[in-house]
């Protein structure tokens, strides 16, 4: 059976033979200067590249052409996302899990990790702690366990999170990263008002996937890989995909990732809302050194740059798995969302000190507070954005993508970023961060191109200073 981007079957839209053919094609053309220049020119049109075209650029070995790829990635990032960086935090509800994933400390056979599941009251305390940091957007995380973490528990937790209003705090968007489930359950998540449904493939190589997932529901490659189809059939039109780089060869999973994006575009008319780019790291009984396919910082930067020019309309996410130096590099190359002040343990936010009993999914590399990260972004000239307006205004799925592709989204995103930053500065920032942020807001407000929108934004910013909250375009 030939490769079919719009097929309903995982092994046809992530076609192993097509990936191998693509790898051979990329290797054969990695020094084909004329072809690489042609592909860079095509990418500059901001219409994207196919997985095969992108693979050639990833293999490119000529320094001047690599520099052109990086420069183009920066240009495209600026064109579609400006200097905005969206902020979020993960919230771990439970680390009970029935799967046997060999790279994750949640695996069922691990007897050393402290198992924990938050009650609704504990969730309330966690959310208040996150609100007091300044967060407005969460990524809800839980292990797969039909008895400990059923869909009813997830839905109740979402209702609890949205219900909490503490001082000026509110969680305005809950993204959900839970195990692959049924169309019926995805409909329930949609009705609960989630933002993006996120699920990492870990690796697209079926044989290696099955070796990495020897037991548990997640061992079913097809069911896991087809999860986004079921989510979109259920009406969740913002989905987020990703692989865990280091589990398999990065070239194979890079191609699989772009094929998955092509599949969603071919089948539903809209690709993934976000692509996440985690790298394997140590935690509890997991040693990252045991995985031989680790990706260097140099290759990681190249992956980010080529993905940015290949899927220019898709958001890109990196977490606190990455160090400050690594995040600094890839922010300019295409990343548009980062986590800040993250705790990857269950119940880690409400405690001033991390508990002696470890319940974390991975070790955090960037351990700075949210305020320190906001201050750092301001120093780099970025606008830390806590905006959730598109989701709340119904600008999701194909509606969001059409606004991005036309450039109209800038009329919303820029002013919304400034207004949510202003809220953060008024309610949560240190004095030093506040001064830097206010100076940036004054500068960026003057750059809003539409006079009417600029006028409204200035009025709203004054209202925020006077105590009002939650303005959005």
TrEMBL record:
UniProt-listed CDD domains: Radical_SAM
| UniProt-listed InterPro entries | Aldolase_TIM, BATS_dom, FeFe-hyd_mat_HydG, rSAM, rSAM_sf, ThiH/NoCL/HydG-like
Domain Radical SAM core positions: 83-313
* The UniProt record lists the keyword 4Fe-4S: yes
Q: Which UniProt keywords apply?
A: 4Fe-4S, Iron, Iron-sulfur, Metal-binding, S-adenosyl-L-methionine
Cofactor annotation? [4Fe-4S] cluster
Pfam families per UniProt: BATS, Radical_SAM
Enumerate the Gene Ontology biological process terms.
Answer: sulfur compound biosynthetic process; water-soluble vitamin biosynthetic process
What molecular functions are annotated in GO for this chain?
4 iron, 4 sulfur cluster binding; catalytic activity; metal ion binding
The name this protein carries in UniProt is Thiazole biosynthesis protein ThiH
| Organism taxonomic ancestry | Bacteria, Pseudomonadati, Bacteroidota, Bacteroidia, Bacteroidales
